[in-house]
Each structure stands twice: as C-alpha cells, then as structure tokens.
Amino acid sequence: MRRTAAVAAALTVSAVSALAVTGCSSSGKSTPGGVTKEERARADAEAAARAKDEAAMKDVALRYVKADLAGDAETRCGLRTETKLTRSECLETYRDSRSKPEEGVTVTVEGGPVDVGPIRNHSAGTGLMLTQKTVVDGHAYYRREAIRMVKVEGKWLVDQVALADDEAMASAVPVRSALMRPAA
Q: What segments bear the compositional bias annotation Low complexity (predicted)?
C-alpha cells in the first residue's frame, strides 16, 4: 500500500512539473505551443507580408524577361537598376541591339528565392531562376537564367542576369553559382 501511494505521489509531482514546464495555463491567452494569440497574429501577418513581397519580386522578374523576349525596351529598361547603364543609355543600347521579338516562349520561375552576396558592381540581393521554354516542331528547348533582384526605394528591380549553364546547374545552388561567377 505504501508503495502504491508513493508511486501515485511521484506521478502527481511529475504531471504538475510537466504542466509548469510546458506553460499550461487556463487563462486562454496561449495557443498550443505556448505562443500567445498576439504573437501568432503578428507572425501570421509577417509571413503574409513576406509572401506578398516575394510574389512582387517574382512578378518583376517575369515581366522583365517577357519584355526582353517581346523586344519591349521601355518595360525592360524600366525594371532594371542603373548599375551598368542609365535608363536612357539602356533604351538606346537595347533598341539598337535587339532583333525581332521571340514568340511562343513560356517563362516560369523555378524554385524559390536565394540570398546572393555582392560581387563586382552588384550589391547583395536575391536570386531567382527563370526558365524559358520554347517548343519548335514538337521539340522543347530550355534556357535558364539566374536573375539578381534588388530592392531600390521599396521597389524590386533586376540588377543582373546570368545564363545558368551546365556548370552552374550542376552546383548545389545553381542560382548563386551563376550570379557569383567571375566575369569572363
């Protein structure tokens, strides 16, 4: 009988200790895991803001590549930083170098954003992999480009575009490999 009472007392102490450690409260202010409703709401709002910002970044990258394929210099140069060229220099250079617009190309973002460090005249930013798919006579052809995105005055802009060749694609992080490659 004494042994049963001692076991029951030990179990009671263990249960009370477990409740104290896990933060069990009857106040109703905590959600499972010991996080308050206010903390959960703040975390949800931050996650929603990050998702919205990421969607805006991807939209700019897609519009940039589609404008490039369509030969739309105004849009293309408007979505680019002035790292190498001013907007007017970009328009002049692009208009002179572009041949006919490419048709029948679908562009998609592949994977998620990747942090990329600064290199040469490019500041730290976020890298994205964009895939261009062209179907000719039933055969699909793919071209992948890594794009460095930077935020300038609250707006996402394209700062660098690099071909993601076989060497970059074979690396652990193809986007970073393509964008951090030394200039040829």
A: 104-118
CB atoms near residue 75 (< 10 Å): 14
User: Which residues share a beta bridge with 135?
Assistant: 140
pTM: 0.74
DSSP secondary structure code for residue 181 in this structure:
S
Element housing 19 (H / E): helix 2-22
Listed residue (40, 39, 71, 64) closest to 159, CA to CA: 64
Full pLDDT tens readout for the chain, 184 residues: 445 444 444 444 444 444 444 444 445 465 667 889 999 999 999 999 999 999 999 999 999 999 888 888 888 889 999 877 777 887 777 765 655 667 788 999 999 999 999 998 899 999 999 999 998 888 999 999 999 999 999 999 999 999 998 889 988 999 999 999 876 5
**Three-class SS state of 15:** helix
Domains with residue ranges and CATH for the chain: 38-179 (3.10.450)
Please report the beta strands in 91-138, taking only residues with DSSP state E, as ranges in sequence order: 105-116, 125-136
